[in-house]
Write a structure and sequence with these properties.
The complex is a heterodimer. Chain A is α/β, with parallel strands linked by helices. Chain A has five helices and eleven strands. In chain A, the strands form two sheets. In chain A, strands 2-1-3-4-11-10-9-6-7 form a nine-stranded mixed β-sheet, with helices on both faces. In chain A, α1 crosses α5. Chain B has a seven-stranded mixed β-sheet with strand order 8-10-7-11-9-12-13. A seven-stranded mixed β-sheet of chain B has the order 23-25-22-26-24-27-28. By secondary structure, chain B is an alpha+beta fold. Among the domains of chain B are: 240 residues, PurM-like C-terminal domain (Phosphoribosyl-aminoimidazole Synthetase, Chain A, domain 2, Alpha-Beta Complex); 176 residues, PurM-like C-terminal domain (Phosphoribosyl-aminoimidazole Synthetase, Chain A, domain 2), CATH 3.90.650. The chains are: A alpha/beta, B alpha+beta. Chains A and B meet through α1 and β6 of A and α8 and α10 of B.
């Protein structure tokens, strides 16, 4: 299975996302923001970083890139898309997901091992998790505060579209402790924390068992491979 | 646009025609004899552009004129054995060290102290940007950063301004570059009030064959400036900021602190790496201090050739800039490449892909001359070496400080020691929660440590460690240290102590120390007592490196760190790089499991002079710093490496500020594993009282935890290697750290006290 990873100018976690895909058993395909051609990939990851230096608004300029436009078109036809951190911001700016992401409540960039609850396991990227499973993956952002108007929040909750919720600590002031969302169809998922940084023993977050042994992020990429096989 | 270009410029022919025209050499920071020697070199007065170039290149910051005669010993006090892993030594943008498997790493630490006091955010941000470009210039992909920060007294209101600005600046720039921040230091002391120290370190990795040098050696090759446009920022920054103290009353100069754009730098990094791998660049130099003046003259001088440059080809943000300003501008995120003509098309394709602007400024010539034109007018005509490398060399007066004997005589013996249990508990808690020993995660949580996915160790472990080769796990460990108090008491020993601690911090992770970098932060070199400190510290460091058998590969000197007559403590920051064949073997700094034995390695002496205990409990600084025996450090490092290879050690933590007491608490807090400690045997064996046992800062000591099944093997190994070993405790799941018959500390309470200090001060 070929999973594309888009690199925009200022993207940082593209090679990490490629490694995660490889470790999950998929074939990563680097995609370039200026190319509309997505090389017939079966799914796409929009990785983290500071595309275009966060100028204008985080993700706003990347949302206009030819590659993103093609992702938007294909996502509407069911292409699995995962937006991580800046990628989540791009998905929101592209209106594939509702709401917005603003400066963290405490005004600082924060990097921490974050506990999440998986609340929707029927998406393309979460089908290997158990309902309400608690996972730990690194979070690192300056503008991760999720906001939406009351009607949107009500709709998201009613339709079970909150995929991940922050546990123990809400690290950025997100409304309803929302860490990640999906679209109606469940093929598009966006979240602020970084599953690609919890895929390899020795380099993930600490766990009760051993230091840096957390690999909860791997299931995101295994889930999409399973979803693709089944589809 | 072009009609805004200045036309009334000083030319070479005018300089010849009006030899007696008065020139502002003094305002530009030159001394009279320096100005005269420029006239001698040129056989005429310099043009105003030439004067700008010489003044900035001959400044202390660029020419190392006061430090040169001392820095030589880093190249002299080395054996061939020490150089065997060195691919590039001192003198280049950064040293390059072979780490095996065809890979090399390059690393360097540099200061950005003065800009960070004036404008902490941009000062610190561009400090990161500058050091990362130095690493990139060697042909390496930058793979991590660290920062060494020293601020004023925590309770002084201005400290918060600097702390917030510096931390956000590093966070903003480093995070946006996608480089993991894997460690560093944060120290508070009132001597840094008007002179905070902001040092930044970067490390990069490269294949041997990708090594690049800052050289223009082939006539006909093109000189290309690319990256950000040139603007008015940082003009004169180098000579003004690094040459004078803030209180001097000279004429007002242009805004001197540069402004950084990390996005532009990130794009520039990727663009440069693609250019390097495509093989289209023959030489490369970053533009930092002294901008185009530095890049053109150094590239030409290093290549033993000359250059012809059209300065009007420089892409500008402001068309009204004068040629002098263009030559001196320190606009960030710019690089200069030497590109063979046949590669121009490939070069253009790559920079256009990354949407990076570039312009061809001129070409390399087979002549010992740097010619710079402004349109038709020749404004610079100089031998490049005289600008770049043949600057003045000073033999500054050196004088043993008047205060030194009294300072050294004022030892800590007179200080009241802890006697009761309650006193010991109170002192342990006070030390662990004092700003210098307290948890630094309020700062480090603002840095991305995960990006790149190769970070094996980061704060709060003793070293940062990153994987370089994904297949084999080959990696490097890095630690930096400096103890300004020790250096103030004894700069020779203090520099050695900084080296010893950084070396030990690398060794405790299981890595083998291989090379050294330094950032020498001192007061004014015009003060003979400061020069004595400098002379002593450099000698101590060079001698120490020779004893340990690891070479200095490069570094940086920052003078004039003083406000009025008050200089900072001499603060030579020493960085040690180690190599580890597989980062999976790394050792963390805290207990990982309960039921392990805790051993103290090394001997404890009654050494409390200059300690955190003397400072934090008694507000005292005097006497002599702890003694350091580098042969013992080496023995200890070898032991830990051996034990790590055999998998005998669960954790290892170096003992430094705060002594054994603080080290034990830190090891418990790391993974929240409790411990029971007994000190009586140690006190008997080493003839110590309680205070010395807990708080002495004797060197060459490490605490390790060892699984019971490995006990016999481990002790045998220590004996075989002649390292004193003593079992002083056992880890447990009590949630307590219990000092038997002394203090019972609840880990949650200790953690609260340890973590709340910085947020309460700065949050």
């Amino acid at each position: 299975m070929k999973i594309g990873v888009i690199t925009y100018p200022g993207t940082l976690d593209d090679r990490d996302a490629q490694r995660a895909i490889r470790l999950a058993g998929g074939t990563p395909v680097p995609l370039w923001h200026a190319d509309q051609d997505l090389k017939k990939v079966d799914a796409v990851v929009l990785p983290g970083g500071f595309s275009y230096g966060d100028y204008l608004r985080c993700g706003a300029i990347a949302a206009q890139a030819p590659a993103t436009q093609e992702v938007v078109r294909l996502a509407k036809q069911g292409l699995p898309v995962l937006g991580i951190c800046n990628g989540f911001q791009v998905l929101v700016e592209s209106h594939l997901l509702p709401g917005g992401l603003i400066r963290n409540e405490h005004q600082h960039f924060i990097c921490r091992d974050q506990k999440l609850r998986v609340e929707n396991t029927s998406t393309a990227w979460t089908n290997l998790f158990e309902q309400d499973q608690e996972i730990t993956i690194p979070l690192k952002n300056g503008e991760g505060g999720y906001i939406a108007n009351p009607d949107t929040l009500k709709m998201l909750e009613a339709e079970n579209r909150v995929v991940f919720r922050y546990l123990d600590v809400n690290p950025n002031g997100s409304m309803n402790d929302i860490a990640g969302l999906t679209n109606e169809r469940g093929n598009v998922v966006g979240l602020m924390p970084h599953p690609e940084h919890a895929v390899e023993p020795g380099f993930g977050p600490d766990t009760d068992i051993a230091m840096r042994s957390g690999v909860d992020g791997l299931k995101f990429f295994q889930s999409v491979l399973k979803a693709l096989v089944n589809s | 646009m072009s009609d805004r270009r200045p036309t009334n410029v000083d030319t070479v022919s005018q300089a010849a025609a009006e030899p007696d025209k008065a020139q502002p050499w003094k305002e530009l920071g030159l001394k009279e004899d320096e100005y005269q020697s420029i006239r001698e070199i040129l056989g005429r007065r310099p043009t105003s552009s030439e004067l700008a170039m010489y003044s900035v290149m001959w400044s202390e910051h660029c020419s190392y004129k006061s430090s040169k005669i001392y820095l030589r010993q880093f190249g002299e006090k080395v054996t061939p054995e020490m150089k065997k892993h060195l691919l590039v030594g001192m003198g280049e943008n950064a040293g390059v060290v072979d780490i095996g498997e065809g890979m090399a790493v390059t690393f360097k630490v540099e200061s950005h102290n003065h800009p960070s006091y004036i404008e902490p955010f941009q000062g610190a941000a561009t400090g990161v940007g500058g050091i990362v470009r130095d690493i990139l210039t060697m042909g390496a992909r930058p793979i991590a950063v660290m920062d060494q920060l020293r601020f004023g007294a925590p309770e002084n209101p201005d400290t918060a301004r600097v702390v917030h600005g510096v931390t956000s600046g590093i966070s903003f720039y480093g995070n946006c570059l996608g480089l993991p921040n894997i460690g560093g230091e944060t120290v508070f002391d009132k001597v840094y009030q008007g002179n905070p120290l902001v040092n930044a370190l970067s490390v990069g990795a490269l294949k041997h064959e990708d090594l690049k040098l800052a050289k223009a050696s082939n006539p006909g090759d093109l000189v290309i400036l690319f990256g950000a446009r040139t603007g008015a920022d940082g003009i004169g920054g180098v000579s003004v900021l690094a040459s004078e103290t803030f209180e001097s009353t000279g004429p007002t100069k242009r805004p001197a602190v540069q402004v950084g754009d990390p996005f532009a730098e990130k794009v520039l990094i990727e663009c440069c790496l693609e250019l390097f791998y495509a093989g289209v660049v023959a030489g490369i130099q970053d533009l930092g201090g002294a901008g185009i003046s530095c890049a053109t003259s150094e590239l030409a001088s290093n290549g033993g050739k000359g250059m012809r440059v059209q300065l009007q080809n420089v892409l500008l943000r402001d068309e009204s800039l004068t040629p002098e300003e263009i030559l001196m501008s320190e606009s960030q995120e710019r690089m200069m490449a030497i590109v063979p003509k046949e590669h121009l098309a490939s070069f253009e394709t790559i920079v256009k892909k990354w949407e990076v602007e570039y312009s061809v400024l001129g070409e390399v010539i087979d002549e010992d001359r740097l010619y710079i034109n402004w349109g038709e007018k020749e404004i610079v005509n100089v031998p490049p070496r005289t600008v770049a490398h043949d600057g003045p060399v000073y033999h500054r007066p050196v004088e043993y400080p008047k205060y030194q004997d009294a300072l050294n005589a004022d030892g800590s013996k007179k200080l009241k020691r802890a006697e009761s249990k309650t006193e010991v508990t109170a002192q342990l808690m006070q030390l662990i929660s004092s700003p210098n020993q307290a948890d630094k995660s309020w700062i480090t949580a603002q840095y991305d440590k995960y990006v790149m996915g190769n970070t094996a160790l980061a704060m709060p472990d003793d070293s940062g460690m990153v994987r370089v080769m994904e297949d084999s796990g080959l990696g490097v460990a890095l630690a930096t240290d400096a103890n300004g108090k020790y250096c103030y008491l004894n700069p020779y020993e203090g520099a050695k102590l900084a080296l010893a601690e950084a070396y030990r911090n690398v060794a405790v992770t299981g890595a083998v120390p291989r090379a050294v970098t330094n950032c020498l932060n001192f007061g004014s070199p015009e003060n003979p007592e400061v020069m004595w400190q400098f002379k002593e510290a450099t000698a101590g460091l060079a001698d120490g490196c020779k004893e340990l058998g690891i070479p200095v590969t490069g570094g940086n000197v920052s003078f004039y760190n003083q406000t009025g007559d008050v200089a900072i403590y001499p603060t030579p920051v020493v960085g040690v790089l180690g190599v580890i064949d597989n980062v999976a073997r790394r050792i963390p700094s805290g207990w990982q499991d309960e039921g392990n034995n805790i051993y103290l390695l090394g001997t404890t002496y009654d050494e409390l002079d200059g300690s955190a205990w003397a400072k934090d409990i008694h507000n005292h600084l005097g006497g002599q710093p702890p003694k350091v025996d580098l042969a013992k450090e080496k023995q200890l490092a070898d032991l830990i490496h051996g034990a790590s290879i055999q998998g005998l050690i669960e954790s290892a933590h170096d003992i430094s500020e705060g002594g054994l007491g603080v080290a034990l608490i830190e090891a418990s807090l790391r993974f929240n594993v409790g411990a029971r400690i007994w000190l009586s045997e140690l006190m008997d064996r080493d003839n110590l009282d309680l205070t010395a046992a807990l708080f002495s800062e004797s060197q060459s000591r490490v605490i390790v935890s060892v699984g019971r099944e490995d006990d016999v093997k481990f002790q045998a190994l220590c004996e075989a290697r002649g390292v004193p070993v003593l079992r002083i405790g056992v880890t447990d799941k009590s949630g307590m750290i219990e000092f038997q018959d002394l203090a019972d500390l609840n880990l949650n309470e200790v953690r609260t006290a340890w973590t709340k200090t910085l947020p309460e001060l700065f949050g």
